[in-house]
Amino acid sequence: MSWRRSGQISLSRRVTLGTLAICVVALLAVAGVMYSATSVMIDRSVAAALTKHAQFARGLAQHGTPPRELVSRLQSRSVRARLVLADGRVFGALDTRPLHDSSAHTRSITLTAPGPVLNGARLTLQIDAPLIESVRSRMVRLLLIVAAVTVVLVAVVVPWTTRAALAPLDRMTVLARGIAGGRRGQRLRAGTDTELGRAGAAFDDMLDALEGAEQRALGSERALRRFVADAAHELRTPIAGIAAAAEAVLAQPDSAPAPDRQRLLLALGREARHAGRLVEDLLDLARIDTGLALSRELIDIRRICVEQAERAALVEPHVRVMVQGPSATAWADAARIRQVMANLVNNACAVTPAGDAVVMVVSATAAMVSVTVTDGGPGVPEAERERIFDRLVRLDVGRSSGKGVGLGLTIARGIARAHDGDVVCRAPAPGARGAVFELTLPIGLGSSHWPTAPVV
Q1: Domain range spanning residue 229?
Q2: Residue 8: pLDDT over 70
Q3: From CA 435, how far away is CA 388, in angstroms rounded?
């Protein structure tokens, strides 16, 4: 890990410098406390020694010890004594060098004795000041050596431990650069319950989300391109038919038979209606993608089913369309629900053989209304029951009548989900044939029993 990146101090160096600063401050505080405590202990020891020697001197004086012997017995390597008798004679001598704290290192007492020699004599005791200062100096040097060694050890060990502790950040940086360079799918997989481990897990989750979003965006882009290409292909056929019919009409002479002209005009109208239906479907999909505006009201779902059955009887007279189940109401956009049911019924009639029946069954619970539409066609393979709702998808199993462009089910699902409902393809009952499509709608306004989902 480099010390500097982008002109800023690296995290490793900041941690090292911060640790060194804390260590130095702590060592200075400890050294100050130890020095103060040691000074207090020395001062107390000096006071105790002076007190002990003073008591010893009083005992010697009470026993009538001669002055010279008394001074000799009191003095040692660290203690000096000076005795001044009442007649002015002086025994012993003190250190004349200035003391750091004379009150703490000397003590004067007046002796009382049975004899006239020592009675009233003035005794001064002195602890050797240079010795005390030498002890203090050695202690300071020892503290400085310990502090210096500690700082050096911290300066050597902390960068190594910091680099080891921050190694996951280096791995994270290498991984991020690799992914930016195109190597997808790599992860840290820290797997430890530490701060860096949790950061690594969050980083992996972020990469999963970003790569998932990237894949969805690429998939959406491919789907959009495919949709535009398929829509252009579907529009090309009716537009070509319109152009051909128009050219044929224009190319006919005025003496052409009326039936021929009528036939061409009918073909022209049929192709124009086909193109118009395709454009209208594409506009519906665009409205669904951008948020479909609904005009909700309390509507009778069974009544809409009956209307679609009557319409189908006129348009597809070869197929019987039946409605079963009780009346059921829901808050919904009547025109849009009619559009959904028309798409489902049209698909069912298109694949149902002549003489067979399409059955709509209405049912309701406390929260939902459902309508199942069962046809008599070849059915939908299980693997295709979800893909059939994709745009411009027409199955090659006899379910395509050639009249649609593969947008009806997509629009039906989009409208249902805009109502917080759904349209799904169910498996038929055991032993039955055909396909089963189910529309579900919430009864109440603004219900969230069914999650909304974008139309793919």
Answers
A1: 185-290
A2: no
A3: 12
The SS3 of residue 263 is helix
Contact 319, 349 (CB under 8 A): yes
Environment class of 127 (CB within 10 Å of its CB; exposed 0-12, middle 13-18, buried 19+): buried
- Contacts for 304 with CB less than 8 Å, ≥ 6 apart: 334, 337, 338, 341
Same domain membership, residue 214 and residue 92: no
Helix, strand or coil, per DSSP, at residue 370: strand
- Rounded CA gap, 376 and 348, in Å? 8
- The answer to whether residues 273 and 331 belong to one domain is no
pLDDT tens-place string over residues 198-217: 777 777 788 778 877 878 88
pLDDT of amino acid 285: 74
Token pair for residue 269? 């109208």
| DSSP structure string for 163-219 | HHHTHHHHHHHHHHHHHHTT-TT-------SSHHHHHHHHHHHHHHHHHHHHHHHHH
Cα separation, 173 vs 169, in Å, equals 6
Task: Answer with the one of 102, 131, 165 that is the final residue of a domain.
Answer: 165
pTM of the predicted structure, to 2 decimals: 0.49
Which range, 11-20, 92-101, 379-388, has the best average confidence (pLDDT)? 379-388
221, 315: one domain: no
Closest residue by Cα to residue 417 from 323, 332, 306: 332
Q: Answer with the residue of higher pLDDT: 446 or 437.
A: 437
What residue has token string 């002015």? 88
Q: What separation, in Å, do the N-terminal and C-terminal C-alpha atoms of the chain show?
A: 47
Alpha-carbon distance of 270 to 259, in angstroms, equals 16
Query: What is the spatial distance between Cα 411 and Cα 282, in angstroms, rounded to a whole number?
Result: 9
Q: What are phi and psi of 109, to 5 degrees?
A: -135, 160
The residue length of the chain stands at 456
Q: Under a CB-based contact definition with an 8 Å cutoff, are residues 398 and 337 in contact?
A: no
Structure tokens at 82: 């000076």
Q: What is the DSSP string of 64-79?
A: T--HHHHHHHH--SSE
**Do residues 82 and 156 both lie within one domain?**
yes
Q: Is residue 453 part of a domain?
A: no
Helices and strands (H, E) in the chain, number of each type: 10, 13
Please indicate, yes or no, whether residues 317 and 411 belong to a single structural domain of this protein: yes
Residue 38 lies in a domain: yes
Same domain assignment for residues 191 and 274: yes
Domain co-membership, 144 together with 220: no
Contact, 423 vs 414, CB < 8 A? no
Q: Evaluate whether 433 touches 454 at the Cβ level (below 8 Å).
A: no
